[in-house]
Design a protein that fits this description.
- 44% of the residues lie in helices and 27% in strands.
- It has a 5-stranded antiparallel sheet, sandwiched between helices. A 5-stranded antiparallel sheet has the order 7-6-10-9-8, with helices on both faces.
Length: 501
C-alpha cells in the first residue's frame, strides 16, 4: 500500500503544469483589425485582419511610418494622427467613432474606407508609454448600404426621418464644439504657468500632468504610473500621506514655501525646491473622493531671495552697530586728548575720513575683504612716493581687521606728519609685512619703521593711537602690538591671526 501511494504521489508531481494561452496566436486570429506603432509611428506589428482590410502584407509595412504607407489626406487623417500622438503623450486611451480615410488600392488609385478606431497606450517595462495600439473596425459596408438606400445625394430625407436627421446634425455640431473646447482646455492646462497634475484612485496614479509640472520633476514619464513608483523621493518626505489624507478627509491641503527634495536629472543628487501649492480632492457623484488635483508654483527663487535679503539686513545692522560704536569711541578718545573745540573738530573729522576711506574699500568688494596694501596706501596719498615704501605679499583682510588697521595706520601717519619722519622733506616711512605659519594658524606680522626724521621724544601720556592698539588689536581681533619710540624713529610691530582659507 505504501509503495502504491508513493508511486501515485510521484505520478501526480510529474504531470506538466498547464501552459498559459498563446497571446501571440490570439493576436493573429482575432477578427478585429489591430496594429501596433512605436513612438515614431512606425509599424511594429499588425494582425492578418488589419492587413486584409488595408490591402497590404505585414512585410510591406513593418518598420515604415504609418502615414508613409497611408499618406494623410483630409480631416480623417488629421484626426487619426492627432489622436495617436495624444495617447503617446498622455497615456490615456481615445476613441474615434467614425473616420473617413482613403487607402491606396492594389490596382492603383485610392479606395475610400470608413473606420471606427480605438487607440490604446502600451507601457514598457519602465512604466513609460512605449507604443500605441489601434483597434480599427471597418464600417465601410455600413456606409455603402446607406449610400445604396439613400443614393449618393439623398437630398430631403424620407418622411419620418426629418427629426432623426435634424438631431444627428445637431449632435454632430455639438460634438465638434465639445472637441474644440476640450482641446482648448487641454492646451490651457498644458501651457499654464503654474504646475498642475491629477492623481486618480487610492494608489495615486498620474492621470494628467502639465508642462510646468514635468519641468519641476525633471521631465520624467509619469502618466499611468503610481506616485510611489514615479517619484519615490517625495513619498519618503510624507507627500503621499498628505495626498491620501486629502482623499480620506475630502478637505484641501495648502502648503506655502514648502521644501521638497527632487531628483531633476537621472542619477543626479536630490535638489531642494520650494513650492506654494494646494491639494484639492476630486469628488465623485457619491460624494467620495476619487482623486486629487494638485496646483501650485515653484517659488524657490523668491525664498532664496528672501533668505539672502535677511542675511544682508542682519549684516547691515551688525555693521551699523559696529560703526556707531567705533565713531563713539573715536569721539570719546578724541575729546579726551583735545579739549579745545577747534582741535577736537579737526582731529575728529580727520579720523572719520580715515574710517570712511576704509569703508569705501570694503564696499567695492561687498564687504567681503580689503587688500592690506590698499588699506596702508590710503594714508600716504598726501605724500610723494619717495616718502614711503610698502613691501609684502597680497593679504586679504577681514572687514574688522581692515577697519582696525586703517585707523591705526591713520594715527601713525598723522603722528609721523606732526612729529616724525613725514614732518620734514627727508624722512621716510617703511611698512613691511609677511604671513608666518604658527602651528595650525597663520599670523600676519607688520612692521612700521620711520627713518631720517627729527629725534623722537616719547610722549608723557598715552594717546589715542596707543589706546586704539590696545582696544582694537588686542581686545577684538586677538592680536598684539608693540610701540617703540626709538630716538632715530618710531617703530610699531603688529601681529594679527589671519582667518583660515
Amino acid at each position: 500500500m505504501r509503495g502504491d501511494s508513493a508511486e501515485s504521489d510521484t505520478a501526480e508531481t510529474a504531470k506538466p503544469a498547464k501552459a498559459g494561452p498563446d497571446l501571440s496566436q490570439l493576436f493573429r486570429t482575432m477578427p478585429g483589425q489591430y496594429m501596433i506603432l512605436d513612438r515614431d509611428l512606425r509599424y511594429v506589428d499588425a494582425n492578418p485582419a488589419y492587413c486584409l482590410s488595408t490591402e497590404c502584407t505585414l512585410e510591406e509595412i513593418l518598420g515604415r511610418n504609418v502615414f508613409e504607407r497611408f499618406p494623410p489626406t483630409g480631416d480623417g487623417a488629421r484626426q487619426v494622427e492627432e489622436s495617436l500622438r495624444r495617447v503617446l503623450v498622455t497615456g490615456v486611451a481615445e476613441t474615434l467613432p467614425l473616420v473617413a480615410y482613403p487607402i491606396p488600392a492594389r490596382g492603383g488609385g485610392f479606395t475610400m474606407k470608413y473606420w471606427s478606431c480605438v487607440h490604446l497606450p502600451l507601457f514598457d517595462a519602465a512604466g513609460d508609454v512605449g507604443y500605441v495600439a489601434q483597434n480599427a473596425v471597418d464600417v465601410t459596408e455600413l456606409q455603402q448600404l446607406k449610400t445604396i438606400a439613400y443614393g449618393p445625394n439623398p437630398g430631403v430625407p424620407a418622411r419620418g426621418e426629418n427629426d432623426l436627421f435634424q438631431r444627428a446634425q445637431e449632435i454632430t455640431t455639438v460634438n465638434k464644439h465639445l472637441v474644440a473646447e476640450t482641446q482648448s482646455l487641454r492646451d490651457l492646462f498644458m501651457q499654464a504657468p503654474g504646475f498642475m497634475t491629477v492623481f486618480t484612485g487610492p494608489e495615486l496614479t498620474f492621470a494628467l500632468a502639465n508642462t510646468a509640472y514635468l519641468q519641476l520633476i525633471g521631465h520624467r514619464q509619469v502618466i499611468g504610473r503610481r506616485l510611489a513608483e514615479a517619484l519615490p523621493e517625495v513619498v519618503e518626505q510624507g507627500f503621499e500621506d498628505l495626498l491620501l489624507g486629502v482623499m480620506r478627509d475630502r478637505k484641501p491641503h495648502i502648503g506655502q514655501a514648502t521644501s521638497v527634495l527632487l531628483q531633476r536629472e537621472p542619477g543626479a543628487p536630490l535638489e531642494e525646491r520650494f513650492c506654494d501649492f494646494i491639494f484639492q480632492p476630486i469628488l465623485g457623484v457619491d460624494g467620495e473622493a476619487v482623486g486629487v488635483f494638485v496646483e501650485g508654483s515653484d517659488v524657490t527663487d523668491r525664498v532664496l531671495g528672501e533668505r539672502q535679503q535677511k542675511l544682508l539686513l542682519d549684516e547691515l545692522n551688525h555693521r551699523v552697530k559696529n560703526t556707531l560704536s567705533t565713531v563713539q569711541a573715536i569721539a570719546s578718545q578724541t575729546l579726551r586728548t583735545n579739549a579745545d573745540p577747534a582741535g577736537f573738530r579737526a582731529a575728529f573729522e580727520s579720523r572719520l575720513m580715515a574710517l570712511s576711506a576704509t569703508h569705501n574699500l570694503l564696499t567695492a568688494t561687498n564687504w567681503t575683504s580689503a587688500d592690506l596694501r590698499e588699506v596702508a596706501q590710503l594714508e600716504f596719498h598726501p605724500y610723494g612716493p619717495e616718502r614711503y615704501r610698502l613691501e609684502g605679499p597680497s593679504v586679504a583682510l577681514s572687514p574688522a581687521q581692515a577697519l582696525a588697521l586703517g585707523l591705526l595706520f591713520h594715527e601713525l601717519a598723522t603722528n609721523a606728519a606732526k612729529y616724525g619722519a613725514l614732518a620734514h622733506g627727508d624722512g621716510q616711512v617703511e611698512v613691511v609685512w609677511r604671513a608666518r605659519r604658527q602651528g595650525e594658524r597663520t599670523d600676519l606680522e607688520i612692521d612700521w619703521k620711520e627713518h631720517d626724521g627729527p629725534p623722537v621724544i616719547p610722549p608723557s601720556r598715552q594717546g589715542f593711537g596707543s589706546r586704539l592698539i590696545e582696544r582694537s588689536l588686542q581686545g577684538q581681533l586677538g592680536g598684539e602690538s608693540r610701540l617703540d619710540y626709538a630716538p632715530d624713529g618710531v617703530r610699531c610691530h603688529i601681529r594679527l591671526p589671519l582667518a583660515r582659507g
